[in-house]
Design goal:
two-stranded antiparallel sheet, 13 helices
Amino acid sequence: MGVYGAGNSGAAVNKFVAPALVVAFGWTMVPKVYAAIMLGTVVLFWLLSHSDPAHRVPSHVRFVDQLAALKDPRVLKYCQYYSIVFGGYVALSLWMVQYYVGEYGLDIRVAALLAACFSLPGGVLRAVGGWLSDRYGAHSVTWWVMWVSWICLFLLSYPQTQFTVATVEGTRSFTIGLNVYTFTLLMFVLGIAWAFGKASVFKYISDEYPQNIGTISGIVGLAGGLGGFVLPIMFGALLDLTGIRSSAFMLMYGVVWVSLIWMYFTEVRRTEVMGPHRAAEVARG
């Protein structure tokens, strides 16, 4: 699943291809080229793939029966996790180019190159996240992914701020905000964390639903896809409402808080993330 998920690196490739097509041929060329690539992919898939009957759901299992998984609070929790690590990844991959252009005044090609510093590791390193999840467990990896995300998003949320302080020598003005280099570094770290998180969430599914991976992964993947669709709309709405570009990160910061609290009360207090001695005390009472 980690190797499969590394295909997310296409979001980074898009940062190089799409702007080059726009500059060279105009935006109408982009969907034409992508449609041709999609057609080629369909042909290759048809010729080179097959279906294993052993992996199919028995005929007596109804679609409605499979949707009963939506009543499982664990599934809803994993949907929430994935809406961050995948939905947030997709949303920010779409949002970053215009963010760089608007916030730092960069050329679209330079902006696309810097945006790839987030989306490229966010795709390629998913396979590494799968290995870490196999070795250390889905919970431990996801827990630290959320904390790293929380720290990065906290720093990214702070808007460019100018203020004046009255001192004994008169007024002095200060400016606080991330420069383009620090911003890109934080986005790079966030991309790595979410690459690991995308793999670790699916490790939960393989561990807890080995007989129903298809349906559960479909539901969780749907939540991630919805996040990738809804979040850019919310980013734009917040920008219109507040006039602050970093409000997109403020929103993601709040969503990560929800995950950390949810994970703490349902998982952390029962595991060894706090250390074996403390976990034993919790287990005793």
